[in-house]
Amino acid sequence: MLVARTGLLPPGRGARRAATLPHRAPPAQPLRRTVRGMTVLRSVSLSVLAAVAEIGGAWLVWQGVREHRGLLWVGAGVAALGAYGFVATLQPDAPFGRVLAAYGGVFVAGSLVWAMVADGFRPDRFDLAGALVCLVGVGLIMDAPRST
Known about the structure:
Blueprint: H1 2-6, H2 28-65, H3 71-87, H4 96-119, H5 125-143
Helix pairs in contact: 2-3, 2-4, 4-5
């Protein structure tokens, strides 16, 4: 390999010379899209994690109190709700009110999914339409072009 890099092999032998390969800097635009995509992916992941912690915590408290499953369920629910409070602080580039408002839409949709999985709930078309409206609202809140 060193021989090929130094140019000691004849040109017909498949050796590439470093001098014949011009260095081109990658365009800046795709990098911005990649960074933006990673920010969106991080925000979505954190919102899903927050939804699992909050909805799961509330469900555990509900099961402990309303379904008489005991204090262990309630304690686990309180711990999950506490974890939810920390997850929101990990959101990038948004003030508290905006993060919480956008998360509200994720919470609505996530609550329906949780109810379907954990309790066998079957949402009707109005539940689904309402969740869709909330998720569109999340997109507007978090991704609207702003001057700041």
